[in-house]
C-alpha cells in the first residue's frame, strides 16, 4: 500500500492512535529537530513561553475557519486526547477524493462530514486531521477542539493522520487527488494562510512543514507527486506570510476597504471567494473586480435586502464577514466562534477597533452598544436576533 488511493489514510492502522507514546522508531535526529523547532519559536515576535497564552497574532490574521459545530460534525465516538504542549511539525495531506468542481460552501461542509464518517468507520474517534482545506478554498476544523487549541497556541488535540507521529504534529488534509493535478488557486491561498497561522500560533519552524510521505515511518505517496513538488514553494510563501503578514481574509480592518468595479487585489478576491461560497457567480477568484463580480455583488445585496449599488462598502462587508455565523445570542463573558464572527462583522461594518479573538469582553460590548445605537436598536450590548439581523442584512 503506497498511497491513499483506495481509502483515506490506508497507511494507518485501524486502531485510534491517540494514546500511544512516541513511536519507538522515532529517530533521535527527529527528536533533536523537534527541540530545535521549539527553540526556533523565539524568532517569532508574537510567540511567548508555552505557559502563557500568546496575545492575538500581530502579523497573520486569523483565517475564516468553519468550525466542526458549524459544518455539522457528529459527537466523537470516544475521548479525544489533548496534548498540553505545542506540536513541532505540520503535516500536509491530500484526501485522494476526486477533484470536484463544486466550490460552494455546502460542498465544503459535505466533504468535512464525509471525512468524519469515513474516519469513524476506520475506528477512529473523530476526523483524523485537525484541519481541512476544501476545493473552493474553505478552511474547516477537523478533529473537534482543534480550532480553540490552535488559537490558544499552547496545546493541540492529538489526531490520527500520520501514524507514529500524531503526538508530534498537526495535519491539514487538502481535499482532492494531487498525483498529477494541483490544488485549486483558492485552496493554495487558503493553505498558505492556514499554514502561516498554525506556524505562528504554535511556533512551528517553517522547515517543519512536511508532506505526509516525509513523516517518520510513513509508507505513502501522500500528498501526491505533483503537490509534493510544490512543498518548497509552500514553505517559501508561508515564510513570506510570516514576515510580511497575510491579507487574505476578514480578520483585520485593513481587510475591509471599500471595493468597486475596476479595483484589484486581495480584498476583491476575498469578496469573490465568499460570494462563490454563498452560491453567487462572481467569476474566477482572480482579484479583479469586473462585470461578473459587480453583478454578483448586486445579486447578493438584493438577496440580503440592502441598497443595491454593486459597491462593497462597510455594510456589505459586515454581511459577508458574518455570513457563516449561526446568529446565536452572545453577551459579555461569552467566548467562541460566534463571538469572533460578531467581532468581524462589527469591525467591517463600523470600523470598530476590536480584536477578533472570539472573547466577548468590554471592548466587544462597547462596540455592540455603538453598533446598536447607530442602527436604532436597543443598546443593551447583547447581540441577539436584531443585532445579527442588522449585521447580516447590511442594514
Ligand atoms: Zn496523508
Structural account:
This protein is an alpha/beta fold. Helix content is 37%, strand content 7%. The chain has 13 helices and eight strands. Strand 4 and strand 5 form a beta hairpin. Helix 5 packs across helix 7. The longest helix has 18 residues. Bound molecules: zinc ion. Zinc ion binds next to loops.
Give a brief description.
This protein has helices spanning about 30-40, 70, 105-120, 145-150, 185-200, 225-230, 230-245, 265-280, 290-305, 315-320, 335-350, 360-375, 385-390, and strands spanning about 65, 80-85, 90-95, 130-135, 140, 155, 170-175, 210. The chain is α/β, with parallel strands linked by helices. Zinc ion binds next to loops.
Topology:
Blueprint: H1 28-40, E1 65-66, H2 68-71, E2 82-83, E3 89-94, H3 105-121, E4 131-133, E5 139-141, H4 146-152, E6 156-157, E7 169-174, H5 185-202, E8 209-211, H6 225-228, H7 231-244, H8 266-278, H9 291-304, H10 314-321, H11 337-350, H12 362-374, H13 385-392
Parallel strand pairs: 1-5, 3-7, 3-8, 4-7
Antiparallel strand pairs: 2-6, 4-5
Bound molecules: zinc ion.
Amino acid at each position: 500500500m503506497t498511497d491513499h488511493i483506495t481509502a483515506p489514510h490506508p497507511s494507518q492502522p485501524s486502531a485510534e492512535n491517540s494514546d500511544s507514546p512516541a513511536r519507538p522508531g522515532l529517530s533521535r535526529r527527529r527528536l533533536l529537530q523537534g527541540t530545535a523547532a521549539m527553540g526556533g519559536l523565539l524568532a517569532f515576535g508574537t510567540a511567548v513561553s508555552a505557559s502563557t497564552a500568546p496575545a492575538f497574532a500581530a502579523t497573520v490574521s486569523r483565517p475564516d475557519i468553519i468550525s466542526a459545530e458549524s459544518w455539522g460534525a457528529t459527537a466523537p465516538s470516544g475521548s479525544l486526547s489533548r496534548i498540553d504542549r505545542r506540536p513541532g511539525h505540520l503535516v500536509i495531506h491530500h484526501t485522494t477524493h476526486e477533484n470536484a468542481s463544486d466550490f460552494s460552501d455546502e460542498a465544503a461542509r459535505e466533504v468535512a462530514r464525509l471525512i468524519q464518517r469515513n474516519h469513524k468507520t476506520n475506528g477512529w474517534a473523530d476526523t483524523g486531521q485537525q484541519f481541512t482545506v476544501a476545493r473552493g478554498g474553505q478552511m474547516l476544523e477537523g478533529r473537534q477542539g482543534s480550532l480553540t487549541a490552535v488559537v490558544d497556541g499552547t496545546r493541540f488535540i492529538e489526531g490520527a493522520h500520520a501514524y507514529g507521529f500524531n503526538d508530534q504534529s498537526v495535519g491539514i488534509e487538502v481535499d482532492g487527488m494531487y498525483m498529477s493535478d494541483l490544488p485549486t488557486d483558492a485552496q493554495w491561498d487558503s493553505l498558505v494562510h492556514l499554514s502561516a497561522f498554525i506556524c505562528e500560533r504554535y511556533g512551528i519552524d517553517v522547515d517543519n512543514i512536511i508532506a505526509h510521505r516525509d513523516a517518520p515511518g510513513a509508507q505513502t505517496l501522500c500528498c501526491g507527486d505533483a503537490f509534493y513538488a510544490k512543498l518548497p514553494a509552500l514553505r517559501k510563501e508561508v515564510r513570506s506570510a510570516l514576515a510580511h503578514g497575510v491579507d487574505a481574509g476578514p480578520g483585520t480592518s485593513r481587510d475591509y476597504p471599500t471595493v468597486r468595479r475596476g479595483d484589484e487585489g486581495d480584498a476583491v478576491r476575498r469578496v469573490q471567494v465568499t460570494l462563490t461560497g454563498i452560491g453567487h457567480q462572481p467569476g474566477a477568484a482572480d482579484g479583479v473586480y469586473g462585470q461578473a463580480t459587480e453583478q454578483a455583488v448586486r445579486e447578493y445585496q438584493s438577496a440580503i435586502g440592502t441598497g443595491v449599488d454593486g459597491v462593497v462598502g462597510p455594510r456589505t462587508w459586515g454581511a459577508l464577514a458574518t455570513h457563516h455565523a449561526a446568529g446565536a445570542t452572545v453577551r459579555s463573558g461569552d467566548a467562541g466562534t460566534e463571538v469572533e464572527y460578531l467581532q468581524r462583522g462589527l469591525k467591517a461594518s463600523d470600523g470598530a477597533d476590536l480584536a477578533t479573538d472570539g472573547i466577548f469582553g468590554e471592548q466587544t460590548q462597547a462596540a455592540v452598544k455603538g453598533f446598536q445605537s447607530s442602527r436604532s436598536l436597543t443598546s443593551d450590548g447583547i447581540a441577539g436576533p436584531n443585532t445579527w439581523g442588522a449585521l447580516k442584512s447590511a442594514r
